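Appendix B. Chain record.
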Amino acid sequence: MTSFGFIGAGNMAGAIVRGAVAAGSSPTDIVVTDVDPAAGERLAAELGVRVAASNQDVVETCDFVVLAVKPQVLPAVVGELREVFADNRPVVVSIAAGQTIARIEELLPPGLAVIRVMPNVNAMIGQGMAAVCGNARATEDQVARVVELFSAVGQAIELPEKHFSLFTALAGSGPAFTFSFIEALASAAVNHGLPKPLAVRVAAQTVLGSAGLVLDRAESGGTPATLRDMVSSPGGTTIAGLLAADDAGLSPAVVRAVDAAVARDRDLGAM
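C-alpha cells predicted for this chain:
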C-alpha cells in the first residue's frame, strides 16, 4: 500500500487526512507530525493514523511526503531534511501557496519527483477544489495518486503550473470573496429588519443552491449568464437589483479582486 506522510497537521492537513480515511485509506498508511505534538495526537486519537516522532521519520518511512507548512517556514523545514530526502527519495507534495515547482526543486536534492498542489479551505467540509501539477520526474501514476488523495475532500484537477496563480485567485482566494458577498447580502437584510443569524442562513443557503444549480446545468451547456437571465423577469425585482449592482461596479470589483490576487501570488512566487 502507498503511504502518505504529512509534515504539518494543521487545519488543511487534518481535512485531507480525514477525507482520505473516509474514502477508504488505511489509517496505518498515513503518518503525521507537527511542531505542536498535540495536533498530531488529536488526529491519531480521532482516526487511528500514526504519529511520527520527527519530520525525519516521516521522510524515512513514507512513499509520499506532503509538506503542509506555511510558505515562510518551508525553506527551513526542507533545509533540515535535504540529506534525508536524498537518501530516501520519496515523492514530495507541496501545498505551500505561491511556491513554484522550480522553487521547491531548489530547496530539495536534485532529481526528486515533486508535485505541487493548491487546495482551498472548503476541503475542511469535503467540498474543496484543488489543482495538481507534477514536475518532469513525477510519473502519471504518482500525479494520479495525489489527485485521488485530494479528490477525497472535494474535487481535484490536473492543471499546468502556468495557471496556478489564476487558480489560486479563483479557488484559493475565491472563498473569501464569497464570504464577503454572503456577509453583504446578510447585512442588507439586517438593514431591512431581518435578524442577523437568519439573514446569514438565508444568504449562505442561497449561494450554496445557486452554485449547485450552475454545476448541474453546466452539464447540458448552461452558463451563469443564462441562469441569471432565467431569473430576471422583465420589470421585476431581480433585474432592478442587477442594474443597481452593475451601477455600483459589482462586476469590475470582482475582476479587480481576482487581478490583485493573481498579482500577489506571482509576487510571492518570485520571493
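Further analysis of this model is presented in Appendix C.
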